Amino acid sequence: MITIKEIARQLEMSTTTVSNVIHGKTGEVSSETIERVRTYLDKVGYVPNLNAQNLAGNQSHIIGVVIKTRGDRYINILSEPFVSVILGSIEKTIREAGYYMMLYISEDMTDILDKVAAWNTDGLLLFWMMDDDALRVYKRYRKPVVCVDTYISRDVIDQFENSFVNIGLEDEEGTYRAASYLTSLGHRKIAFLSDNRGAGVDMRRFNGYRRALNEAGIEFEEEDFFELQSGKHDINGSMDSLADKASRYSAVICCSDVYASMLIASCLRKGIDIPGDLSVIGFDDTFPGTLCHPPITTVHQNIEEKGYLAIKTLLKMIQGERPESDQIIMKPTLVVRDSTSVPKA
Question: 65: which of 11, 107, 143, 258 is 20 to 30 A away, CA to CA?
Fold first, then answer.
């Protein structure tokens, strides 16, 4: 490939002038010169050597995005509406800032640690880290880290040396509002559907549901938790079983719109009317909720804004700015559609 030195010789210019045009540093270059250089670059098909540029600037201009998944929960996590929407927002924000995105998905924490230690990235965005996983990554990586929907203790956060920020949601508040809305309609037999309740966002959402029931004087029974067998299991068969169980309830709160739409489909196949026989609420406000019939009442979170904030925060940290807070927590809102109504008399 032709070099900058050769281009400069052909155009009878200095290598500095040619380099400045190629790299967009044209403040002191005349418009005629810029046009001459760009015309010649198009003619010879010149492509800048990004690796050389990155080495010269001591930056790769690559943002690493790591998703820690669960094999027992997801077969293809990129098919999940929440993930596809937030990754689209993340990629767009990274691209518009002049950076590139490197994506890695694994359920093996050792594998993740080995990969990030070897990557030449300027910063990392981590999804759904548990316990001290994010800290283990940082100790191997030692560059700016931003997490999404990561719940870790204050003791762990303090070990990040001002290089940690979590972009999250008031998950507990979201399901609290959903359950409170149902109790205000007169519902007393309300279930919560998820594939777990022991960690992460699902635990917080379960806690919000429990808090609202407690305030309404409704005693929670273990059978009120509908545990869905997902991932490699027969998720449709599991949902059909839960639909049978739901016939004994007046309402179900689901931890996602995907699960809510699946529950509604199973109920309708069994002759359970939505919302006449059963009210259903989802979470996230993703497209399955609006495509479903009836459209799903849901807890809305601004997923695109969450991705945008995560990258903008990380870019500021890469540029040396200290974050004002280690927690940026967004607020949910309840969107009432047609899947909820007063309970049957």
Answer: 258
In one-letter notation, the amino acid at residue 283 is: F
CA geometry: angle 29, 31, 37, nearest 5 deg: 75
The verdict on whether omega for the bond into residue 343 sits within 30 degrees of 0, i.e. cis, is no
3-state secondary structure of 213: helix
Backbone CA torsion sign across 105, 288, 212, 222: negative
What pLDDT is recorded for position 52?
54
330: β partners:
169
**Residue 148 parent element (H or E):** strand 145-148
What's CA 230's distance to the chain center, in Å?
20
Give which of 260, 95, 278, 104 is closest to 182, Cα–Cα. 278
Q: For the sheet containing 164-169, what is the strand order?
A: 100-106, 62-68, 123-127, 145-148, 164-169, 327-330
CA distances from 42 to 7, 49, 157, 202, 339 (A): 12, 15, 50, 53, 58
CATH of 62-170+303-330, one of 3.60.20.10, 1.10.3720.10, 3.40.50.2300, 3.40.190.290: 3.40.50.2300
Tell me how far the alpha carbon of residue 112 is from its chain's centroid: 18
User: Are 310 and 251 spatial neighbours (Cβ–Cβ below 8 Å)?
Assistant: no
Q: Does domain 171-301 bear CATH number 3.40.50.2300?
A: yes
Whole-model pTM? 0.82
Query: Tens digits of per-residue pLDDT, 243-271?
Result: 999 999 999 999 999 999 999 999 999 99
First to last CA, the chain: 79
Mean pLDDT for the stretch of residues 57-66: 82
